[in-house]
Amino acid sequence: MANTKDCYQYTDSGLKNVWLVNGFTKKQTPYGEAVGIDNLDGLHKVIATTIINKRASLTGDELRFLRIELDLSQKAFAEYFGKTDQSAANWEKSDHPPKDVDYLVRHIYRQTMEKSAVYTDEVDRLHQLDEADYNDWLISFQELNGEWGKAAKSC
Q1: Spatial CA neighbour of 88 closest among 99, 73, 103
Q2: CA-closest candidate to residue 12, choices 65, 51, 58, 60
Q3: 155 residues of the chain, pLDDT tens digit each
Q4: What pTM does this model have?
Q5: H helix and E strand count, the chain
Q6: Which residues are registered as beta bridge partners of 51?
Q7: 118 HSE (CA, 13 A, CB side)
Q8: CATH classification code of 40-131
Q9: Where exactly are the structural domains of the chain?
Q10: HSE of 116, CA atoms in CB hemisphere, 13 A
């Protein structure tokens, strides 16, 4: 491992344990030292992938990092679990968020990054159904030639 003196602690991620060996440039500005990161999107992707593949439980900071990478507000994130934004805030302050949240956020991130967001699509669909007018749910069925199906006209 490189000497941490030669490395850069990347705290802009919201994580305290991310150190860069290279891929960054330091320069002095009139406001102090500035650091430029090469391929920031790639860095965030590898951080997230490392987080979702680790054996240990997620920390609140890691949960927040993944939520932000998913481009979700606390409110939108909490809705995936049927909870309030206050719940999400509490999870992010926690040393160890609830195990179901831990597992599902890993699953959601993996599916989203692999462009097969089956779970998130289903949750979004269910939220839309919850908001639909009850009359939209009065569905008529008909039997035709021994097979049941949705009726062309409603009762």
Answers
A1: 73
A2: 65
A3: 455 567 888 999 999 889 998 888 899 999 999 999 888 989 998 999 899 888 888 999 999 999 999 999 999 999 988 999 999 999 999 999 999 999 899 888 988 887 766 776 766 766 665 555 544 555 567 678 877 866 676 56
A4: 0.73
A5: 6, 6
A6: none
A7: 3
A8: 1.10.260
A9: 1-38, 40-131
A10: 4
